[in-house]
Amino acid sequence: MLDSSRQRVVRFVGAELMDIYDKVIAGERLDYNDGVRLYATPNLSAVGYLANIVRERLHGDRTYYVRNQHINYTNICNKFCKFCSFYAKKGGPSPYEMSLEDVRRRLTEHLEVPITEIHMVGGINPRLPYEYYLDLLRTVKEVRPGVHIKAFTMVELIEIQRQAKKPLETVLVELKEAGLDSLPGGGIEILSDRVHQELFDRKLDGEGWMDVARTVAKVGLTQYATMLYGHIETLEERAEHLVSLRALQDETKHFVTMTPLCFHPEGTELEHIPHPTGYDDLRNIAVARLMLDNFAHIKSFWIMNTPQISQTALWYGADDLDGTIHEYEITYKDGDFGNKKQVLTRPQMVKMIEEAGRIPIERDSLYNEVTPTEEPTGRSLHLIPLNASTR
Ligand code: SF4
Questions:
Q1: Does the predicted TM-score (pTM) go above 0.90?
Q2: Cα of 304 from ligand 1 centre, angstroms
Q3: Residue 97: other Cβ atoms inside 10 A
Q4: Which residue's CA lies nearest to atom 8 of ligand 1?
Q5: pLDDT of amino acid 387
Q6: H or E segment at 22?
Q7: pLDDT at position 332, please?
Q8: CATH class of 63-362
């Protein structure tokens, strides 16, 4: 005879997921098959419920955000990934390459906001010499001393190394000396040779990505991790990606956060693929939280998931919403390639989190708590209304 509290759990979670529930309660590691089942079950509420147990065990109601600014320094790229709408092409965005003066100007536009993180990534632009990357980092630190620079995907690092003609470890040490603090970790999208072959075979493969990540860990830099979902990957490939990331983290212990990234087909070669739904977004957050027991944080990146889904995701395993952003060129609102403004102010971030019944905590890039200071009033910002879709 089951006691009544367990009966209630069985009714909600379903008998078929009770073995996973028992593992979650006992703090046991889930295996690859558990991951596939969590992706396949139609009972999303149960997956969210399980993920929320882990989320609250780790963070209670605490929900993190950062005041940051994104800079995408060039959209010229020779990799032509099929899922990408960012790189310059006919009928798409016009090519650009930011000079150091452009970067300085972009930073100065938001100088009155107490930003703690600058996030910089760009295309693989063979015209940019090694010195450009070093000067880029130095310029940011000069304009904003003390800021944390999170920059360059693993693919960009390989290009920077090619330009430098030096071993990757030496390049990373020199980038660090110039101001690099951590790596955003992107570039592999999903660790699957099949998907790599079909969608982005000019970029480094899974093994290459893992080797670069190991070198990043070796020089003492922090890294973040992502997974792009909702294109041609299978549920099994998603589970494999999470298990591989987890194994790498066991080895290196240098990852801080994992962010499932929702694929946006608009303006890509995969425009015929339907956009992932809110249901997909919540499930990917929840399964990541359950499988990645050695990652402290799971992020719902509001630009990709919308502010609304991100609020809900705070009950499906997410404890972080990223930040204020300011400009974002990787995906475009309504196919408008000229519209780079995508910003939430600190009061908007706080409101979003409080509306969802959680406690907002302003953090820096390494999750140290920051004492919030008000932003100056009267600034002219193009805000995203909280009730508007960004898709
Ligand atoms: Fe280039 Fe990155 Fe876009 Fe691939 S995803 S085409 S590497 S900018």
A1: yes
A2: 17
A3: 16
A4: 123
A5: 40
A6: helix 18-26
A7: 52
A8: alpha beta
